[in-house]
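Tip: read the tokens left to right.
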């Protein structure tokens, strides 16, 4: 049969069966099964990918909401400080006394991550009960912080507020924030820049939400109920999502480190044993580490000043209403969110992370200097926008320290050395935050009834300027090779 005749064979099943003796039907059925199998497989793949994305998102909800309720509470503390100082405690209580609440809370939140990491490492050998222990510890922390935050709404003494809000809530929030970072699972570590960017964005959203809640409750149901609603928000968002916490897997072994992870471990050069391409090591790694420590101390001593005191400044110095002053804090936190997004993008494209962060510290210092001359509304808006934006980039230093400390290396001795030295950075950050607010409060009330915010502005701006200089000098020293001669 010629090819032309073959093309005229009927294409109906009957014709194919008559011509091929039944083979055509079998071939047709097999082809149909292959096509349907391929379609079903593609459908299953799409379904699996969709379920995987949903599962990944659900597991991410806990760290996001923890950041919203812990770091966000710290950014919104200016609204709490106004309520504590002007509404809840006795009017004779000084700014210095009330400022200890926020300084202790921020200090504990920054300082305790090495202790939290050690605590959960002790639970790891008990693999069969490990997840249960973690869920119990997390749920207990959420319950305790909620109870004490609600109780702080009824306390009229600043000592009680220091213990409840500053110490107890601070410790619980530090454990929860450390738990959220430690338990980022393998899927989230595949795209770390995106996930950590969302975690930082959660803090900014939390600052906006907490401030908005207090601002809305202040003229209606009162400041204490605003605190209670903030506490209920925490338990309503964190407690359900902790159930989706993934099991802990081996943490970031060096052979598995992706390019993205290297952009987060920004302190490895200063803390660790950096080597250049030719095998030589930095000449002045010791002095650079000391300079970085002093820089972090000064940096976090002045970083949160504007967030904690902008509302009091608006009410008592800029002659604004409490609602207008809280809107300044909301705008600052919103710009902090924009800065968090930009910081995540920069980490994906900029090679020298520490140099960019040092420049951001310098810009934050300059923004604080402009506060001293921002006497009108437009000037204040410009200040809160620029300061919120730059401070978000600077605050990534804390999360970078957390990832550097949590990272594990094939060499156990190197891991131990890295964690030992990184722990000093946490101490520097915590001590700086602890001393910053009381020191600025003393300067604010030096003028008696006339509050001297300009002195506090200048001091914190200078501290940030010194921090930028120390970090820059540390980077310069780290770039010198051990084989270089000073005479050369």
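Filled-in amino acids:
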């Amino acid at each position: 049969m010629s090819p032309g005749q073959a093309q005229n064979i009927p294409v109906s099943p009957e014709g194919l069966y008559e011509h091929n003796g039944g083979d055509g039907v079998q071939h047709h059925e097999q082809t149909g099964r292959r096509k349907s199998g391929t379609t079903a497989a593609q459908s299953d793949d799409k379904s699996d990918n969709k379920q995987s994305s949903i599962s990944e998102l659900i597991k991410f909800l806990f760290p996001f909401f923890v950041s919203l309720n812990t770091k966000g509470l710290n950014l919104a503390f200016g609204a709490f400080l106004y309520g504590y100082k002007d509404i809840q405690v006795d009017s004779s209580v000084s700014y210095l006394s009330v400022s200890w609440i926020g300084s202790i809370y921020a200090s504990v939140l920054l300082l305790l991550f090495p202790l939290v990491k050690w605590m959960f490492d002790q639970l790891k050998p008990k693999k069969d009960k490990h997840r249960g222990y973690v869920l119990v510890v997390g749920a207990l922390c959420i319950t305790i912080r909620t109870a004490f935050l609600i109780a702080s709404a009824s306390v009229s003494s600043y000592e009680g507020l220091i213990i409840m809000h500053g110490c107890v809530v601070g410790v619980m929030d530090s454990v929860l924030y450390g738990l959220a970072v430690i338990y980022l699972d393998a899927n989230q570590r595949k795209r770390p820049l995106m996930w950590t960017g969302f975690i930082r964005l959660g803090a900014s959203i939390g600052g906006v939400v907490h401030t908005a809640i207090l601002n809305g409750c202040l003229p209606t149901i009162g400041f204490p109920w605003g605190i209670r609603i903030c506490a209920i928000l925490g338990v309503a968002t964190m407690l359900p999502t902790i159930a989706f916490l993934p099991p802990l897997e081996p943490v970031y072994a060096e052979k598995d480190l992706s390019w993205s992870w290297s952009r987060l471990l920004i302190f490895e050069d200063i803390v660790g044993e950096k080597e250049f391409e030719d095998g030589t090591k930095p000449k002045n790694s010791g002095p650079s580490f000391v300079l970085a420590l002093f820089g972090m101390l000064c940096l976090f001593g002045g970083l949160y000043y504007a967030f904690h005191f902008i509302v009091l400044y608006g009410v008592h110095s800029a002659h604004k209403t409490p609602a207008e002053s809280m809107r300044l804090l909301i705008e600052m936190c919103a710009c902090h969110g924009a800065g968090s997004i930009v910081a995540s993008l920069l980490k994906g494209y900029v090679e020298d992370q520490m140099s960019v962060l040092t420049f951001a510290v310098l810009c934050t210092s300059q923004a604080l200097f402009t506060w001293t001359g921002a006497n009108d509304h437009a000037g204040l808006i410009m200040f809160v926008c620029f300061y919120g934006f730059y401070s978000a980039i600077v605050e990534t230093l804390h999360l970078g320290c957390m990832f550097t400390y949590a990272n594990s290396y094939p060499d156990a001795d190197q891991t131990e050395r890295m964690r030992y030295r990184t722990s000093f950075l946490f101490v520097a950050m915590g001590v700086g935050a602890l001393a910053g607010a009381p020191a600025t409060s003393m300067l604010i009330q030096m003028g008696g009834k006339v509050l001297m915010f300009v002195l506090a502005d200048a001091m914190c701006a200078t501290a940030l300027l010194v921090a930028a200089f120390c970090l820059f000098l540390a980077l310069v020293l780290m770039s010198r090779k051990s084989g270089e001669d000073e005479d050369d």
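Residues 1-23, 250-257 have pLDDT under 50 and may be disordered. The chain has one domain: 57-478.
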